[in-house]
Amino acid sequence: MPPIPKNNNNTSFSIPTLFLFFIIISILSLTFFFFSSYTTTTHSSLSLQPTTSCINVYVADLPRSLNYALLNRYWSFTSDSRIGSDVDSEIRSKSKALEFTEFPPYPENPIIKQYSAEYWIMGDLVTPSKLRTGSFAKRVFDEREADVVFVPFFATISAELQLGMAKGVFRKKVGNEDYQRQSEVVDFVKKTEAWNRSGGRDHVFVVTDPVAMWHVKDEIAPAILLVVDFGGWYRLDSKLSNCTSSEMIQHTQVSVIKDVIVPYTHLLPRLHLSENKERHNLLYFKGAKHRHRGGLVREKLWDLLNNEPSVIMEEGFPNATGREQSIQGMRTSEFCLHPAGDTPTSCRLFDAIQSLCIPVIVSDNIELPFEGMVDYTEFSVFVAVGDALKPSWIVNHLQSFSKKQKDTFRQNMARVQPMFVYDNGHSGGIGPVPMDGAVNHIWKKVYQKLPTIKEAIIREKRKPPGVLVPRRCQWRPS
């Protein structure tokens, strides 16, 4: 029987082998250490970021007479001679009970409808919570839990009621019911604990109509204002550059820092990309030729472009006939002209987007909704006023775009169309809002401003008694 070999458990290693083994262990240990440190630091920094997916909104307890009852009153009118009122007169003749409805519809008169943001924002907030699963704004019923306080005043309807009944006293206080309502709103909120705690800085007012809240603008200026542009708040007819210039936006009135630019309500139906057909015209515009202030450029553009080939310049008003002409014109044109009117913007821009007509924005200082969330250069053409007023410049510039470029513009436009839609498709505006619609994007923009607003509230607390913040010019690059 052969001898059994000995089981030798003493394994010997050479010095180089041991050294290599030590190096490997050291590298693995250091790698684990740095990875653990990085992971801990990353998780720590992430925990400091906002994790909420909503903004907490408290609705100020204004009486119904300052919102939905104003609509009841509007629908109780037996006649209205203003431009565009024919469509509402027809609605009145078919629906006799609108003046008694709890949640009446918003006017279809395009002059009023374009400013209907107040209606859709309010409708979302009063919708039962179980139906608001897609809303970015979470309604809370204790103001101490709120990020912001929404003031549910239908300022546009209030102003339009006064203009419809007695336009002559609109800029006066005596005999002006709109002024009385504005004062009632301001008196109400200023007596609340929430306003006194923040100085109104966390209150939200919808003032889309340029004449809305006209008499109390200074008093609500500290608040977050939802506006379509800054055209109704300052004039552009001064060349001065000091603090007395009417061209400068006072920081105590409106500012892109605290306020939110919101879309006009579009008046034309949406055209889906799959429905788009060949477009035979280069450029289209429909509107009033003669405007005031910053809109004077429109008249000059009209004279330059009116006789250009493949350019359609139509003068018209927003009645039923004008609407059909606009649908036809925008859907058969490659580009739609967007010069300033009485204010820097108009609902025409959002009609063009819904019509997949590439906007040509002629402006040197326009403000647009949801910038930072959407890049307008991906589907719009921006033109400086100086270039636009050169003979044939706009036409030559637009003709330089290739079919591929125009198709890309239109594809990008189709993707952002829902962002500018308010209508939720529900009666009275009561129902779930589209998750990718205008109302949610407005609240997301307000949410972005919360850190700055909260900082301003805290800084205000430490000011010595009697110290006032000086009025300063809005900063502008030289």
TrEMBL record:
Family indicated by similarity: Belongs to the glycosyltransferase 47 family.
Residues passing through the membrane, by range: 12-35
CC terms in the record's Gene Ontology section: Golgi membrane
Keywords assigned by UniProt, alphabetized: Glycosyltransferase, Golgi apparatus, Membrane, Signal-anchor, Transferase, Transmembrane, Transmembrane helix
Sequence ranges assigned to domain Exostosin GT47 in this UniProt record: 55-397
Gene (name only): 25485002
Lineage, highest ranks first: Eukaryota, Viridiplantae, Streptophyta, Embryophyta, Tracheophyta
Organism for this UniProt entry: Medicago truncatula
Chief location category: Golgi
Statement: the UniProt record of this protein carries the keyword GTP-binding: no
Transferase among keywords: yes
Membrane topology: Single-pass type II membrane protein
Pfam assignment, any one: Exostosin_GT47
Protein name according to UniProt: Exostosin family protein
GO molecular function: glycosyltransferase activity
InterPro entries per UniProt: Exostosin, Exostosin_GT47
Compartmental location: Golgi apparatus membrane
